Amino acid sequence: MPKKTVKKKSQAKKKKKKVKATLTMERVLTEISNDAHEFYNQSRFGSVLEDGKVQLSLLEALYLMERGKLLIKDYRKKKVSFDEFIKKAKRVEPNFWIRYCVFKDIRDRGYIIKTALKFGADFRVYDRGVKPGEDHARWIVYPVHESSALTWYDFAAKNRVAHSTKKRLMIGIVDNEGDVTYYEIKWIRP
User: Fold this and answer.
1) Topology adopted by domain 96-185
2) Catalytic residue among 136, 145, 158, 183
C-alpha cells in the first residue's frame, strides 16, 4: 500500500501547475512567476513586461490553454473555457479561427511563429531552433480559408512584401476541418 502513495506523490510533482492569466480585450497577461517566464525563455511565447508579467497574444494564450499550461480568467476572476475564449477572440478579430489553425499547425511542427504586422503580413516564421532576435524570420505567412477569394492585386502585393523584406511568402490555406495546406511562392526571373 505505501508504494502507491509514493507513486502518486512523484506523479503530482511531475505535473506542473497551470500558469494563471487574465484576459483583457486584445491580450492575456500572466501572473508573475518563473513558469510564466519559461513560456518566453523556452519557446518565445509572448513578451516580458517591465512589471514581470508575460503578455501573450490571443493566439498564444489559446495555444497554451489548449496544451493545459494556462488557466485564463476574465476581469471578474471567472474561469474562461476554451469555447468562451474563442467566442471572445472572434469579437476582437473576426478571422481568429483561421489564423489560429495556421498558428497551431506551425507551432506543432516545431517552428516559432510571431506576428508580422510591421511587414504587412499576419505572421513571420523562424527556422527550427532559431529564436527571434538571434536571426531573421525565413517566411511571412498569410492564412486564408479555402473558400476565400484572393485577387491578383492582393496576391501580387503579398508577394511584393515578402520579396522586399527578403522573406519567403507562404500562404496557409485552411479547410473546413481546420487542416492547413501550405504553398510557398517565390519570385523567379525567366
Assistant:
1) Trna Endonuclease; Chain: A, domain 1 (3.40.1350)
2) 136
